[in-house]
Amino acid sequence: MRNFRQLEICKNGIEIVKQVYILSQHLPSEEKFGLRSQLTRAVVSIPSNIAEGCSRNSEVEFKRFLEIAMGSLFEVETQLTISQELNFFSEKDLKNIFEILNKEAKMINSLINKIKHS
After folding, report:
1. What are the tens digits of pLDDT across the range 51-81?
2. Model confidence, pTM
3. What ranges do the domains of the chain cover?
4. What are the backbone angles phi and psi of residue 66, rounded to the nearest 5°?
5. What's the CATH fold of domain 4-116?
6. Please, what's the b/e burial string for 33-42 (b: 16 or more CB within 10 A of its CB; e: otherwise)?
7. Pick from 74, 80, 52: which is nearest to 65 by CA?
């Protein structure tokens, strides 16, 4: 069993959650049960699945939870892109979060590949 609290990908995932929650507060109130809800559920899923995967006893199971976290990350990126396309956010508003998401995706992918080849 791994200590998820020590993993950089989990720490980074929690930072992503904080940033997205701050951004989501600027979505229109009519999106409270739409895009905002979907976005916040997906973003929380990133570090949650990493943490859950850490509790598993096999590398195969851990890898599967990392893949789920990656799927959630792509959901968040897509939902933020949709928000930008709907003019809720500018490219400038999302630049930093997209950079953090890209960094997280690379870290998750690297760990998945490491597990595959071990």
Report:
1. 999 899 899 999 999 999 999 999 999 999 9
2. 0.93
3. 4-116
4. -65, -40
5. de novo design (two linked rop proteins) (1.20.1440)
6. eebbebbbeb
7. 52
